[in-house]
Input
Amino acid sequence: MLGTFTFHNPTKLYFGENALEGLSEELPKYGKTVQLIYGGGSIKRNGVYDAVVKILHDCGKTVVEDGGVMPNPTVKKLYEGVRIAREHKVDLLLAVGGGSCCDYAKAVSVSVHEPEDPWEKYFARYEDPTCEIVPVGCVLTMAGTGSEMNGGSVITNPAQKMKIGKVFDERVNPKFSILNPKFTYTLPMRQTVSGIYDIFSHISEQYFSGTDDNVSDALSEALMRSVVNASRIIVRDPENYEARSNIMWAATWALNNLVGCGKTEDWMVHMLGQALGAYTDATHGLTLAAVSLPYYRLVMPYGLLKFVRFAKEVWHIDPAGKTNKQIAEAGLSAMHAWMQEIGVAVSMRDLGATEDMIEGIADATILMDGVGYHTLTRDEVVRILKESL
Ligand code: NZQ
Ligand code: ZN
Output
């Protein structure tokens, strides 16, 4: 049975090969000065930067450059972005890139007019914004996080070895996002599949909680099947528009609140992955891939029937002649085979983790209490991390 919920997602989306035309429609709604946020230079190499800057100039905007947003954006970079926004009194933060640029733009948006330290207020204490919020727009170049249509922002504090995701309310969502699947063609395959696993994990982490039948879980199953199908095409044919567009759209719906409506959610794989990320600065989706199977194998007995449903609905496991445990295990084996097929079956060691980091990563892992099928003990966290190594 679906629980009580409110669904409100105010982000306007422009999707498709000509989606960038939407930028010309949106820009006149905002003031003159635009902070152009981007990463390490991929948008300069693939032509997206030139296309965006031309539209900004055509619309009469003053552009303030804010490049160099790193994957897993740091608190130090956040302070720099806030300084730039204050100095130029910017009217719009335009993120052109992946989840890191978009998350960073949102963190800047709630910090420009906030007198307190944003790390302390939002990421350490999880407080909500009480100040004016600078609007954010997004031109997405990597499919994965769903940041283009949610209020989430993940910031890393390397000195404290903490990577924290704050889920802001819809005031912090991008006002608009431009989604052109062709912009993702130039992604290195490792980033592509990392994003694909991130999408899959967002869905499965909302799915693996609760025992009722509800439409949110049915939507999740359809999305997971679609992600698996499209991923198999992309690894062979990276410029397949149909598959790229399905991945981009699935990513948005995987984490824009829809499939979590009216149900409890788990999120323990993300907690483990974020702690691993804080120690290794590894690519986000791959951190999730490294810890997923040991985690799911540990919790499977506590939520057996959902794992049976997952095996049948997502992986087409034939239940004939099998016990529930065998069906559930066959589902996880099929998931593992798919991860190997697309190249995300990695270990923590592959991502730079070493044995001596395990206790620290366990300490940095936030334990989700009572929302999934089983609340992990610290010993179980250590066991999962050792198995993931
Ligand atoms: O920096 P550039 O040069 O642009 O290169 C980027 C970066 O190195 C490259 N890239 C992006 N688009 C490209 C491209 N290269 C070639 N062609 C393109 N079209 O890809 C690399 C990774 O980019 P990044 O933005 O870091 O990836 P992603 O979208 O996976 O974002 C990861 C961040 O988002 C957070 C993660 O923790 C991580 O910090 N997340 C945000 C969430 C949210 N807001 O809801 C939820 C997620 O679970 C996630 O935690
Ligand atoms: Zn994620």
